[in-house]
Design brief:
Elements lengths: L3 E2 H8 L2 E4 L7 E2 L24 E3 L1 H8 L3 H12 L6 E3 L7 H10 L3 E3 L4 H16 L2 E11 L2 E7 L5 H10 L3 E14 L2 E5 L7 E4 L3 E4 H5 L7 E12 L14 E5 L2 E10 L5 H16 L4 H15 L1
Parallel strand pairs: 4-5, 5-6, 8-13, 13-15
Antiparallel strand pairs: 1-3, 2-6, 7-8, 7-9, 9-10, 10-13, 11-12, 14-15
Helix pairs in contact: 3-4
Length: 306
């Protein structure tokens, strides 16, 4: 299971450490944060103790209104389970009692100036990406007209050369050769790089290119949601290649199905143009228009006239 340490969270969001500074190596394994509420009154049937605990104004004001004895009991309920850390939002002060408990139990107590809503959204998004299940696939990932596309095919089939042509047409490279796919939800796959190959494109006979240095920032994008899977294959004579799109094929990645098409290669074919057409066609389908259905409707209408 993937994990990050509390220190990474501190550095990413520039959090102030109020207690437990020696315990910043504690691990975080769950993507969503939690705001303890019922736990303060002793209800723990569904307490996600492995999550980062967020203490907003509602939680802190509740604790401040309690007597010293009641507050000690309520905080003790939660601290006893040793969550990865507590984060107090909105730069709230008067946390002596909370600092004491976290220091004794060696749990990091952190603070941010941001509001609870804004900060929680940012942290949840960050943790979701960092802790998402991932796999590495051989291919090229590009953003074509705002649509994330994964291009696959045998080694030497021309994936990187195709990427270079598309970059020249104003589209963006995400990753070449090794593409990291992250599962963000049951229907969302994110494509990105592995840090080492960030911004690099490898072309046979030419070598490595840094697309940002050569073509500027507009030629590169750090990540993109994968909306379309394209497989490049050598030309097969007399092969029927879904000309009317009567059935949409899919490629599965970590349980998420991505619409998939096959493009056969032959000298003289404008493969980059076909990829652009596929991206634009996918977009139209998301708007509710499907050219094949429109075409078949016209054919049936003509047959009806006869």
């Amino acid at each position: 299971m993937k994990s990050i340490c509390v220190e990474q969270l501190v550095n990413e969001f520039q959090l102030e450490v109020l207690a437990g500074g020696e315990q910043l190596d504690r691990t975080i394994k769950k993507a969503k944060t939690h705001r303890p509420g019922l736990e303060f009154i002793g209800y723990f049937d569904f307490f996600p103790m492995e999550r980062v605990q967020i203490l907003g104004k509602k939680e802190i004001n509740f604790l401040k209104q309690q007597s010293d004895e009641a507050r000690a009991e309520q905080i003790g309920h939660v601290v006893h389970y040793h969550p990865p850390c507590f984060i107090v939002t909105a730069n709230q002060d008067g946390l002596t009692y909370l600092t004491k408990f976290c220091h004794e139990e060696q749990i990091p107590l952190l603070r941010t100036k941001e509001s609870t809503v804004d900060f929680t959204a940012k942290v949840d998004n960050y943790l979701t990406r960092k802790l998402a299940p991932e796999i590495a696939v051989h291919g090229v990932c590009l953003n074509v007209s705002g649509i994330g596309i994964l291009i696959r095919g045998e080694s030497g089939v021309g994936k990187s050369e195709l990427a270079h042509t598309l970059i020249g047409r104003g589209h963006r490279l995400v990753s070449d050769d090794i593409v990291i796919l992250k599962k963000l939800s049951h229907k969302t796959i994110l494509g990105t790089h592995n840090d080492i190959n960030r911004e690099f494109l490898a072309l046979r006979s030419v070598g490595l290119l840094n697309v940002v240095r050569m073509y500027g920032r507009k030629a590169y994008q750090d990540e993109s949601r994968i909306s379309l899977d394209i497989e490049l294959k050598k030309w097969e004579k007399d092969a029927l290649n879904n000309d009317l799109e009567l059935k949409t094929e899919h490629q599965e990645y970590m349980g998420v199905e991505v619409p998939s098409i096959e493009i056969q290669l032959q000298p003289g074919r404008d493969v980059a143009g076909l990829v652009e057409a596929a991206a634009n066609n996918w977009y139209l389908q998301q708007q509710g228009y499907k050219a094949s259905a429109d075409f078949m409707e016209r054919v049936q209408w003509e047959d009806g006239d006869d």
